[in-house]
Amino acid sequence: MTSEAVRRVRSGSPWEESFGFARAVAAGDRVLVGGTTSFKGPVLYGEGDPYEQAKVAFTSAVEAIAEFGLGIESVIRTRMYLTHARDVDAVGRAHQELFDSVRPVSTLLVVEGFVDPRILVEVELEAFRGA
């Protein structure tokens, strides 16, 4: 795949610079959005609230695919990473509110933790930009 066929979008996260990654990458007919939390700049939205963190994180991920002219209807896969199994229903409710009409394939995992212990939820998504 040539470099012209790949396009990257950054969000401005400080981790993008220190780790060397982009928020989203379009390659061929797919747009991949990497791990997205409810941080916007230095501010963590929804601290202590997994539902709010999931909503903010998914909204940020959808904003990343909008850079490629795509919307929620293009989302074909989501992944949700939680630090507590008790938060499954709250995060699932946020997912349903955003993606109920689209019904992407989805994975939900409980993980040990994140780089900032205030983060309860991290999400990823994949979108299809084909015909």
Describe the structure using short key phrases.
alpha+beta; 60s Ribosomal Protein L30, Chain: A; six-stranded mixed sheet; two-stranded antiparallel sheet; 31% strand
Topology, pairings included?
Blueprint: E1 6-9, H1 14-19, E2 24-27, E3 30-36, E4 39-40, E5 43-44, H2 50-66, E6 75-82, H3 88-99, E7 105-110, E8 121-128
Parallel strand pairs: 6-7
Antiparallel strand pairs: 1-2, 2-3, 3-8, 4-5, 6-8
Helix pairs in contact: 2-3
Strand content: 25-35%
Radius of gyration: 14 Å
In the predicted model, the low-confidence regions spanning at least 5 consecutive residues are none
CATH topology-level fold name: 60s Ribosomal Protein L30, Chain: A
- Kindly state the number of beta strands: 8
In spatial order, strands of the major sheet run: 1-2-3-8-6-7
Instruction: Give the helix level as a range of percent.
Output: 25-40%
Average pLDDT reading: 90
